[in-house]
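Re: that chain you flagged

S.,

Sorry for the slow reply, it's been a week of failed gels. I finally had a moment to sit down with the sequence you sent. For the record, here it is as I used it:
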Amino acid sequence: MLAIIDLFGNSLIAAALLSVAIGIIGSIMLINRYNYLAASIAHGSYGGVGLALYFSLPLLLSTTLFALALALLLAFLTFKEPKRLDILISVIWAVGMSLGIIFSDLTPGYHSDLLAYLFGDILLVPSSDLYYMIVVDIIVLLFTLRYFHYIIAIAYDKEFAIARNLPVKMIHTLILVLIALTIVMSIRSFGLILVIALFSIPPFIAEKLTKSVQAMMVVSGVIAFLLIVAGLWIAYFFDISATAAIILLASFIFLLFFKGSK
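Prediction finished late last night. Pasting the structure tokens below so you have them in one place:
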């Protein structure tokens, strides 16, 4: 037992820290239907990975700046070109990934860790990433506590919120910024390809089990943590990828709830 705990080490701490972000940001994404926007930021952020490799920059710094740029661009386009937003999201998604691929190709040498950035490996999360996660979690908590009522009002009736002169543009922009930060904090754990699934499934399940957004956030975080820990155990006993085991387990539970909700 102690050997297993030692093996997981940072993974269990990362699971707890990630669950906080998943519970809060995942729930906000769900009630605002921001999952496609978040997916665009996640996949497009691969451009930041490519830049980090090519210019020998710190991965978290490069990817954070790139993801924040994408978030601000999407926030601007949401209000500037709302009728063409779906197309623009797809273009940003593709351009970001293409830049990442090109810069990776131009970087001399073989980079075996590229797959880790795309698909993640929570067993290899370094201690430095844990500090980043703590900072992001604190920012997410402070933002949610400060603007919770605005978030709810905008999510359920944006036109009414605009009519009441609520800071809709600011809240929308800040939510996308926080989505970008939480995606970056998850990059080494779940990768840019699979991370959106984990930010989407626990909130969906929690929504079926709760009657308020506050409860949904808490239950979603608990579900996320349990799924990650269970996935780690499955990966350990069957000697398979931890990230894939977690996502498949989450998807299986999702299908059960999705079928039951019909």
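What I noticed first: Residues 1-6 have pLDDT under 50 and may be disordered.

Talk soon,
D.
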